[in-house]
Specification:
236 residues, seven-stranded antiparallel sheet, four-stranded antiparallel sheet, 16 strands, disordered N terminus
Length: 236
């Protein structure tokens, strides 16, 4: 009887272990443009789905995985599993983001400005009239060194980013172009551009230190890596 009890215990334990999910430590972190769902897994692939998406998969590297989803105005649940059947799946709630402005209004405001900046004609600095749903590039300079990206959901602008190579890698015209684009973004969102440019000047003078400023309910996160790249993330 004693041996039978031990064997029965071992059998139950093995069954219990086989039903455990290999996906663990799942968490979601939100930036201006996307939400990253990350975690660990013992399998080489993690399958995931939401209420609006079919079955997708992502690779696992060094036992870790990351899934980037464009921010949305509605919260939703994501299921993750090491199998397509989603047996013993992990679930996580992804929080909703806040709208900055309607995209048609933003593009109209941005594109309505036509002027020179620091002696350079920048009338061709225009964002896309109709932004695609999800994350997309709204403006890119001819050289590709100045890029404005945005996340749009239900014709609402959810988040923005401005990326610019600068210092030795940007011409004076391109430097003016990136400053001009930032000024237009601030004006279009109803922010005080003087406050925004104080944040820009401060992060450049600090040599790589991250700086955050807020104006009229809008957050501007500046990150400048000395001599290489400037990134500005914009969200509520």
């Amino acid at each position: 009887m004693k041996k039978k009890s031990i064997f029965l215990f071992l059998a139950v334990s093995i069954i219990g272990l086989s039903g455990c999910s290999k996906v663990k430590d799942v968490e979601a972190s939100k930036s201006a443009l996307v939400t990253t769902v990350s975690g660990t897994a013992k399998s080489s692939t993690v399958y995931w789905k939401t209420d609006s998406d079919g079955v997708n998969k992502t690779s696992v590297k060094n036992s870790k995985f990351n899934i980037k989803m464009p921010n949305t105005l509605s919260k939703y649940s994501m299921k993750l599993s090491d199998s397509k059947s989603f047996k013993n799946a992990k679930s996580i709630e992804v929080a909703a983001a806040k709208s900055l402005i309607s995209y048609p209004k933003f593009s109209n405001e941005f594109n309505s400005y036509s002027d020179e900046f620091n002696g350079y004609d920048l009338t061709n600095v225009k964002v896309s009239d109709e932004g695609a749903q999800g994350l997309s590039t709204l403006y890119q300079s001819a050289e590709g060194n100045v890029i404005v990206r945005g996340t749009i959901d239900d014709d609402k602008l959810v988040g923005l980013s401005l990326t610019a190579l600068f210092m030795n890698q940007l011409s004076q015209r391109e430097t003016a172009e990136s400053s001009y684009a930032l000024g237009l973004i601030a004006k279009s969102l109803g922010s005080d551009y003087k406050v925004v440019f104080r944040g820009l000047n401060k992060t450049l003078s600090k040599g790589g230190q991250k700086i955050t400023v807020k104006s009229k309910g809008i957050t501007y996160e500046f990150d400048a890596k000395k001599g290489t790249i400037l990134t500005v993330l914009i969200h509520k």
